[in-house]
Each structure stands twice: as C-alpha cells, then as structure tokens.
Amino acid sequence: MKSTVRRRALGTSVALMGLVLGVRLGGNLATAAEPVPPRQAAAEVDRLLNEEVFRVNPATQLAPRSNDEIFLRRIYLDLVGEHPSPAEISAFALDPSTDKRAALVDRLIDDPRYGRNWARYWRDVIMYRRTAEQALASAAAAEKYLTEQFNRNVGWDEIAAAFVTASGSVFENGQTSLYMAQGADPNDVASEVSRIFLGIQIQCAQCHDHPTDRWKREQFHELAAFFPRVGLRRAGFAAQMPSITLEGNDSAPLVRRGMGTFGTGSQEHFMPDLKDPSSPGKQMTPVFFANGKQLSSGSTDADRRSSLAEWLTAVDNPWFAKAFVNRVWSELVGEGFYEPIDDLGPDRTPSAPQTLDYLAAQFAASGYDVKRLFRTILRTAAYGRESRSRRAPDQPPFTANVAQRLRADQLYDVFASLMGYDPDAGMPQTPNPLQRFNNGARGQFNLLFGYDPSARREDLTTTIPQALTLMNSQLINRVVSARTPSTDLSKLIQAGKDDESIVLELYLLCLAREPNEAEYAACLEHLKSTPDRAAGCEDLLWSLLNSKEFLYRR
User: Is residue 140 part of a domain?
Assistant: First the structure.
C-alpha cells in the first residue's frame, strides 16, 4: 500500500492512534487528527516535558540555553554531519535576527548532506549487527537508497515497508540490505525487523518465553513465519564477487548449497522442539504479535511480507511511531525516553511518557513525515540547552542536552576537510562492492572508529587502536601536516597569517568556536617558544584534534 493512500485515511484512523497512545493535551486525553506546525508542537513538547520532569523533582535545575557557538556546531553535526565553515560561523554570529536558529534548521534540513548523514546512521543501524562480513557488500547501496529517500522526505512508513518487501540485487537495491545483513535467516530477520522498526527485542523469546517482557516463544516464531520463503541467490560473478539476489520462492524449498542459494530448507517455519532436537518441530502460522493479525498456512511470500509491512506501519500500531521518535530524540537530545533505545514495549516505562506519546502521535498524524519531526525536536528548548554529563539513575531526565560521541563518518569528513581532500576520493575503482566499501579510506576509518548506533552511549569506550591512531599514525600526521600543500594548516601558513590568526582559524576549523583568552594566551606562548613555527602550529592542531571537545558534539 502506498504511503499516499495511507495518508488520505489518517483523518479517520488516527483517532484510534490517539486512544491507543493516550496523548494528553492540556490535561485531557485527545486525538491528533491533524499535526500542528513544528513551532507549536515544539512548545507543547517543552510544556509536557517540563511538567513531567518537575513532577519527579520540583527542585530540578534546567541547564541554560546554549550559546550560538555551541548550537551551531551541534546543529551542523546533527543534521549534515560536518562542521560549519569559518565563514558560516561568522555569518551566524553576526546575524541579529531572533529566529536565526529556526531558519538555520530549515536550511540544513533541505541541504543534500542531511539525507546522506542520516542514511549513514541508519546504514550502521542495519549493518552493525550483521551475521557475516560479506553483508557489507550491500552497505553502499543501502546508503544511496536511504540518502535519496530522506532527501525526498519519503514517509518512514514507506521506507520501512520497502525494507520488509524488498527484492532484487543486494548490490543495487539498498532496501535488500536488512535481509543481506542477516543472511535472510527467518529468525535473524524477524529479530531485526522487530528491533529496528518497533524497538522491541522479541528475539529474547526465541528459545524461551521472554524473561522480563510478556512476549512468548510462540510469538517470536509466528513472526519468523513471515520470512521462510525469502532467500539470497548467487547469480553469476562480478570481479570474483558473486552477484547476489534477494527473492521469494513459493515453488520449491530454499536450501543451502555451499556457494549456491541461501535459505532455510523449507517454505514454512518450524519452532524447534527443545526436548527433541531431531524433530522438525511445530509448523508456525504467520501472526503479527503487535496486533494478533494472522495469515493462513501456505500463504505466498508476497502475501506474508506485504501484509506484515502494512500491519507494521499501520497508524494503530503505536510501537512503530514510538521506536522512530525514541531513536531520533536520543540522537538529538542525547538520551532516549527508553534506554536502551531499541528496547521498548508494554512492560517498559519511558522517562517522560506523555511527551513521547505526544511526539509519536504527531509523527503518525503527519504521515510519518521525518523532516517535520526533526523540525519539531530541533525547535525545542530541550534540544537547545547546554550539554551536561550523563545523569545518574536517580536524577531527573532531560534537564540538559548530553554530549554525543561523533560517529566515524563525521570524524572522517572533518579530517578529510582539514587535509583538503574530497572525503570520498581514493575509493577503490573495482566492481567488487565489498572491496569498494571496505578498502577505501572511509571504509577503513569506519572499521576502526565505527560503533553500534543502538548501543548505550555510556557503554562506548575509546579503544587502544583508536587512541593510537589519533595520537600517532599516518592519518593524523597527514591531517596536521604544515608541509603538505593541500592541508588547511599549510594554506594558512603559506598565506602569511600571523600567529593570532592561525590560532583563531584552527579553533574555528576544529571546534567551530573562537578560543577564550586563556586558550589564546597558552597557544601564542607555545608558538613563541617553539623555534620551528610550522612544527608549533602542528602541535596546536594535534592537541585540538585529540581534545574531548573535538571528539564529541556538545
């Protein structure tokens, strides 16, 4: 079903969404038949959030509004994944208009880099928990597909449905990447569809009833029963890499034949008998656990996956909207309503349920308009506050923004800019998609600095190889080189900039802000005391790139 068709029906069906979510407007339950403008929605989010936060602790102190320098770097990294240029920093600082932040949000959301930045985020969500390294061969296609969809502002329901119903070449059709990442195994695909699109980790019920949620083992295998007829088929070779096609098969069982076809060996899904592993187990009927709807045994692959896509993205399925809102809010504000961000469910309690319900209802009522959701969150006071360290469990949530570690692609783009390089130059010119993704400079950097976007941020730590790379590696030496003509540092020196100007420019390039008086004095003193001026400038740039402020967006 097309997204446009769903949106025509929203006026009547979203009333059910309001009842399911229990959206609280002005203290009363209400529906959201029509979304309100982002500015108005942002004000309501702040009202609801403050009410919920102060209810927990009336003495709560909210962080103040961030200054323009912090906001500018934050919004550029969050929306387009890059730093603002020194010229853009100056222009924003000199702009006297009171609505310049909202105007900047609108401009950056319409920048083509917006789609690419968020495509890379979702590419990593899909690919990081891959079951085999060869799955990365579909990563570039996934990034390309998602970039196009986000820039065109295709509804999230349509994007999700495309992933569930995908078919074709995994090297050309980015929608196939989720199946490729899981080897088209019904159990693994079911787990990821639920985790990514609903935020529900039903995979914990694969071998036994869920230990902490209400999900039963039968419900997991009923979900897996939507996928047994889809498989990955090798079809020819291209530069020593087999061409792989994702397709459904209703005429014959899919079997594993070494380098041939991947599949389950059956057109139906069976729940293993734990007491008798030699038994084929119980044949499962496709049933969607979120609403109890089911198909008959023997249903075709097309019926199974198209029905699941429709039920998954339906406006009366609150988990679909909540899962996306929770992820985006967490990335932008630094903490999700649910933590971990992919562990929602009726047996979990979010930090601010009324606020989440309101945002989810607005998102659903808009036809899952992704850009509209961004415009709403980015206009909130919650997003615009100064950042603080992660709170303790007994402290109230959302009193400040929380610093976020830069993703690998964001770090790489800043490094490439400082080197004066096209970030994607040097990509291997080979028809082998796995080699193109892995062997390029960006791919190698991602393998070293990448992390699971679904992981708790407090669980992320800097590894020894990462620290050594930033301290002393060929990469960092190229970035800070004052003797390579293409680098920004070399250009500043060759242009005859004085010490004060060089210090200012390096701070703008690395931290998107001017140095304070103490930093100015320390940097100028170092340059004055270093006989080799170029080496002294390299020291300054090196120290900025190894600072915590550079590695995190505040």
Answer: no
CA distance 321 to 368: 8
Identify the domain containing residue 479 by its residue range. 408-553
Q: Do 308 and 340 fall within a single domain? A: no
> Does residue 300 sit in the same domain as residue 422?
no
Say what angle helices 517-529 and 533-545 make with each other, to 10 degrees. Answer: 140
Residue 235 CB: number of other CB atoms within 10 A?
12
Q: Which candidate, 314, 328, 306, 359, places its Cα nearest to that of 157? A: 314
Per-residue exposure over 33-45, b if at least 16 CB sit within 10 Å of its own CB, e if not: eebeebeebbbbb
Cβ atoms of 337 and 360 closer than 8 Å: no
Q: Is 322 helix (H, G, I), strand (E, B) or coil?
A: helix
Who's near 11: CB < 8 A, 6+ residues apart? Answer: 33, 34
User: Is the domain of 48 the same as that of 14?
Assistant: yes
Which residues are CB-neighbours of 376 under 8 A, at least 6 positions away? 38, 41, 42, 45, 359, 362
Average pLDDT, the chain: 88
pLDDT tens for residues 344-370?
Answer: 999 899 999 999 999 999 999 999 999
| Residue 159 contacts residue 132 (beta carbons within 8 Å) | no
Distance CA 473, CA 7 (A): 52
- CB-CB neighbours of 432 under 10 Å: 17
CA-CA distances (angstroms) from residue 275 to 266, 279, 280?
21, 9, 12
Tokens of 40: 């108005």
Q: How many domains does the chain have?
A: 3
3-class DSSP string for 342-409:
CCCCCCCCCCCHHHHHHHHHHHHHCCCCHHHHHHHHHCCHHHHECEECCCCCCCCCCCCEECEECCHH
* Residue labelled with tokens 């990081």: 128
Whether 85 maps to a domain, the answer reads: no
Q: Would the CA dihedral through 508, 511, 515, 520 be positive or negative?
A: negative
Query: For the chain, what is the total number of helices (H) and then of strands (E)?
Result: 27, 12
Is residue 121 assigned to a domain?
Answer: no
Give me the amino acid identity at 133.
E
Residue-wise pLDDT for 78-89, tens only, equals 999 999 999 999
Position 259 confidence tier, pLDDT thresholds 50, 70, 90: very low
Phi/psi of residue 247, nearest 5 degrees: -155, 155
